[in-house]
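Priority: medium. Attachment 1 of 2:
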C-alpha cells in the first residue's frame, strides 16, 4: 500500500507543480484563465488526491492497529507522524475552500468568478502554509519509497525550490486579492 501511495503522490506532485506554476501566473494576470486543459488536469489531480486520502487513512489505521497488537505505543513521541497527518487533514479543508472558490459558476452560459475577499485570501494562504509543511516533511519518505538514492545530496535544493515556488504562489494569491479590490 505504501508503494501505491508513493506512485499516486508522485503523480500528484507532477500535476501539482504544473498547476501551481500555471495557476500562479493566472492569479498574477500573466496568462489568461479558463483553459479546458488546466481544468481537466486539476480535476485529475483532485481525483488522485481522493485516492491518496483513502490510502493515508488506511495506513494510519494499520499503524495504530499494529501498535495496539504489539502493546508498544511510540506514536506519542513520533512528532513527524502527527505533523504529516495534521497537515494532510488541514490541507483537505483548505483545498475544499480552494475548489469552491475557483470552480466558478455558470449562469445562463455566463461564467462567473467567485468573490475573492479577505476571508478567501486567508484560507488560500493557510492552504499554501499547509502545503509547505506537508511537502517538507514528506519529500524524503517519497524519495525513499520510490527507491531514488540521494547521491548528490539534492534534498536541501529540492526543499528550497519547493519553498520558493510556494512563496511565489502565496504572493500570487495576494496579487489576485489586490486585483479584485482595484477592478
Ligand atoms: C498553491 C497552489 C495553487 C495555486 C496557485 C492554484 C491556482 C488555481 C487557479 C488560478 C485556479 C483557477 C483556474 C481557472 O479556472 O482558470 C485553480 C483551480 C483549481 N484548483 Fe488550484 N491552485 C493551487 C493548488 C491546488 C491544489 C493543491 C489542488 C488540489 C488538488 C487544486 C485544485 C484545483 C481545482 C480542482 C480547480 C478547479 C479547476 C476547474 O474546474 O476549473 N489546486 N487553482
Ligand atoms: C486530502 C488531503 C491530504 C491528506 C489527508 C494527506 C495525508 C497524508 C499522510 C497521512 C501521509 C503519510 C502517509 C504514510 O504514513 O506514509 C502523506 C504522505 C504524502 N503526501 Fe499527503 N495528504 C493530503 C494531500 C496531499 C497533497 C495535495 C500532496 C501534494 C501536493 C501530498 C503529498 C504527499 C507526499 C509526497 C507524501 C509522501 C508519500 C510517501 O511517503 O510515499 N499530500 N499524506
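Attachment 2 of 2:
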Amino acid at each position: 500500500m505504501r508503494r501505491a501511495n508513493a506512485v499516486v503522490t508522485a503523480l500528484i506532485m507532477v500535476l501539482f507543480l504544473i498547476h501551481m506554476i500555471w495557476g500562479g501566473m493566472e492569479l498574477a494576470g500573466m496568462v489568461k484563465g479558463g483553459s479546458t486543459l488546466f481544468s481537466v488536469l486539476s480535476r485529475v489531480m483532485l481525483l488522485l488526491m481522493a485516492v491518496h486520502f483513502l490510502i493515508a487513512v488506511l495506513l494510519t489505521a494499520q499503524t495504530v492497529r499494529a501498535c495496539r497488537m504489539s502493546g508498544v505505543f511510540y506514536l506519542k513521541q513520533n512528532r513527524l507522524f502527527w505533523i504529516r497527518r495534521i497537515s494532510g487533514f488541514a490541507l483537505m479543508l483548505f483545498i475544499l475552500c480552494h475548489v469552491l472558490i475557483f470552480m466558478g459558476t455558470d449562469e445562463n452560459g455566463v461564467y462567473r468568478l467567485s468573490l475573492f475577499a479577505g476571508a478567501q485570501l486567508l484560507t488560500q494562504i493557510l492552504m499554501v502554509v499547509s502545503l509547505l509543511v506537508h511537502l517538507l516533511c514528506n519529500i524524503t519518505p517519497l524519495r525513499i519509497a520510490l527507491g531514488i538514492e540521494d547521491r548528490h545530496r539534492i534534498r536541501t535544493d529540492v526543499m528550497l525550490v519547493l519553498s520558493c515556488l510556494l512563496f511565489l504562489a502565496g504572493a500570487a494569491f495576494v496579487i489576485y486579492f489586490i486585483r479584485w479590490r482595484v477592478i
